[in-house]
Every structure is written in C-alpha cells, then in structure tokens.
Specification:
Layout: E1 6-11, E2 18-23, E3 29-34, H1 36-39, H2 48-70, E4 77-89, E5 92-105, H3 111-124, H4 126-130, E6 136-142
Parallel strand pairs: 5-6
Antiparallel strand pairs: 1-2, 2-3, 4-5
InterPro entries: KH_dom-like_a/b, OsmC/Ohr_fam, OsmC/Ohrsf, OsmC_Ohr_Peroxiredoxin, Peroxiredoxin_OsmC
Protein name: Osmotically inducible protein OsmC
Organism: Halosaccharopolyspora lacisalsi
C-alpha cells in the first residue's frame, strides 16, 4: 500500500514551547502547534487532537461511502465531524473519547441500511481501528 509522513519540529519546553507540523507526503502545508492549543483556545494553532479529528472524520466518511456504494447506494453527500476530547488520565493527559457525528444524503437508502453501514464504518475504518481502546460514539442520520 502506501506510507504517509508528517514531521514536527519543536523548540522549548512543553508549556511555553512551540512547533510546526509539516504534512510531508502531500505537501499540503505547515501548521503551528503548541501545548496551549491542546488545552486552551487554539489561537490559530493546531494540536495532535485536532489532527486526529481530521484523520478520523475523513477516514470515516470514505469508509461509509464505500460501504453504502457496495450496497447499491452511492451517497450524494457525507458530512462527518469528529470531536476528540482530551482529559486527565492517571498522571497525565489522554484522549478520553471521540464523538463522530455524520449527516448524509443517500438517494434510495432507507434508515436501516444507512444505520447498519454507519455502525460498520465506525468499526472498520482504519483510523477507528488505530484508536482501539478509546470510546468512540456515533450519531448518524440521513437528511
């Protein structure tokens, strides 16, 4: 298959340091990162949790579209958001949950077909699989 790469350059300590994450494989850009962007307002910076949310929402949308297509229902639109929660765990921080919300327009699909595909996509999407052990919730609906 394919490998994908990103690089982060960090300067300083955890609390006041800053860094830049570069999406190397796609050359899609460089993004500033900082610890305060993880626990306070982002102020134009990203965080590992936001990058996980982006990865999860895009992976899930693709997986759901594929499953619906296999059942003969090509989606007109799939909009997925992922909310990644960072909280205290033991002596440090951990991702304590991810909430997926999907709204889709799928001509010809009934609610049962859509819900089954939505649940299965949550289970088999590669990013969901990589996050095994994290509580992932799903709110899926047809529009």
């Amino acid at each position: 298959m394919a490998d994908r790469n990103a690089t982060t350059s960090w300067s300083g300590d955890l609390a006041s340091g800053t860094g830049t994450v570069t999406l190397d494989s796609s050359d899609a850009g460089r993004f500033p990162v900082s610890f305060p962007a993880r626990t306070e307002e982002p102020n134009g910076q990203t965080s590992p949790e936001e990058l996980i949310a982006a990865a999860h929402s895009s992976c899930y949308s693709m997986q759901l579209s594929g499953l619906l297509g296999e059942s003969g229902h090509t989606p007109q639109r799939v909009d997925t958001s992922a909310e990644v929660t960072l909280g205290k765990s033991g002596d440090g921080l951990a991702i304590t949950g991810i909430a997926l919300t999907v709204r889709a327009s799928v001509p010809g699909a009934d609610s049962a077909t859509f819900q089954e595909a939505a649940r299965k996509a949550k289970e088999i999407c590669p990013v969901s699989a990589a996050l095994t052990g994290t509580t992932i919730t799903l709110d899926a609906a047809l529009e």
